[in-house]
Task: structure prediction
Amino acid sequence: MWCIAVIAQNTFRESLRDKILYNLLFFAVLLIGASVLLAELSIMEQAKIITDMGLAAINLVGVLIAIFVGIGLVTKEIERRTVYTIMARPISRAQFLLGKYLGLVLTLLVNIGVMFAVFLITLWITGTPIHFSLFQAVALIVVELMLVTAVALFFSTFSSATLSAMMTIGVYVIGHLTTDLKGIAQKGENEALSAIMTGIYYLCPNLEYLNIKGQAARGVSVALSYQMLATVYGMLYAALLVTAACVIFQRRDF
Amino acid sequence: MDAIRIEQLQKSFKSGWPGRPPIPVLKGLTLSVEQGEIYGFLGPNGSGKTTTLKILLGLMKPGGGRVELLGRPAGDVEVRRRVGFLPESPYFYDYLTAEEFLSFYGHLAGLARGVIKERADHLLELVGLTHARARELRKFSKGMLQRVGLAQALIHDPELVILDEPMSGLDPLGRKQVRDLILKLRDQGKTVFFSTHIIPDVEMICDRVGVVMDGRLQAAGRVEELVQNGHAHTVEVVCEGIKGEDVPAIAKVATRLLQRGRQCLVVLPKPDLVDEVVTALKAQGGTLVSVTPQKGSLEELFVQPSNNQER
Result:
């Protein structure tokens, strides 16, 4: 347990000393700020534009960090051979992987926290109402990012950084389209295509479960039971992927 | 109990092409390292040294055979509390300062904060990096990285220290520092097992040596024994007042003649020939300056089988 915390803390420290993270954070703040300008120019409901853009910025930057830092969690350690000295310590491979994962989750939490704070300040300054639904949406964004990080970690235990990035982006995109895929499978006349679409539907996580940004921007809260169910769904999926990553990593030679 | 026991160790790597047979790297390597000794693991590049070390530390799984560290199987995570490791050309987290770096590894070994501080101070002084303790590793030279890497391997005061090419890439001063440190570790009762292809380092500090060639142990034993076995000592005779080439009795037996002004260096293949040369020298009116028996070297042991392999 102690080892996991040490690895997580170091992963968190690594990301804090990475300039890319600050650039992404700056980008998010810029996007949130730009939403105010855009709202001024728009004839549509200004509050909705600000909240829509703010939540989208938080989500986008979070996903970028989850994917691009996530794929490097393991591949960078192997490429730079830093894994040699760590694995030579009294630490199991599963502990190492779990520490890396939790370190990035901690980084994401801090980043989301900062972006959400900037977002709330922006809403307050512009006099936009702050609904409970916004907190719900951000909480599910965090769950989604934990899941995306787990996907990136899973792929990076057996493939290169580039391939892992491509596959994780693929899962992310498909994850938001699974309901459409199921629709195609049901309506399609080609049986093979239907079977593939159904397979993808069941294999890929349904990330739309975790996306309540549209409702939140309109100030509509979701039922707490839904929130809970979606959270458990995302967490279980992430846990499954991290476990699979540990099993694969256990067999690897360095 | 041996510090390291390897029996019939085998390892093959997958060939890059499907359908091709795996490439064997270790073909039944057997060796043992006693506690408290410095053991040099010698072999040319690609002979299987690093693979052996990786298997010892659980970084790779053996394809066959038995590997034990301090009486425990090599895959045992707990035994690594008693083992320190420095990989070849180490790359570390370069965003950490030397102090943070040692603290990280100390925490991983389960040491308390106070102990880590004390050990880090001591080790930074030992490897001569106290002045750079607050500097990030990305600003370290290669030699400094090697030294801080050694400190990392020793932070938890291990019984067994495994070093992969610890002297490679270091300048003569750096190499001497590492050699001295290894000797100091032996004096503290620790076992040091290090791989290298730099022969003089082995000759200078190792109690025992194992020579690995093509995935098998070619020879093992004390340096003197290995050098003596099957390798006759040469002798260098320096004399004055003659020209070696002009004295047939000398030219006939010498393996090498070198004339430097009035002095002549005569290299003889075995000590028995010295009397013959001295007699011929006196008969020619020359004077004997010195007779120096030349110790055999590990190099011969190292090079000969390599050449055979190439053929």
Q: What stands out?
A: Residues 307-311 of chain B have pLDDT under 50 and may be disordered.
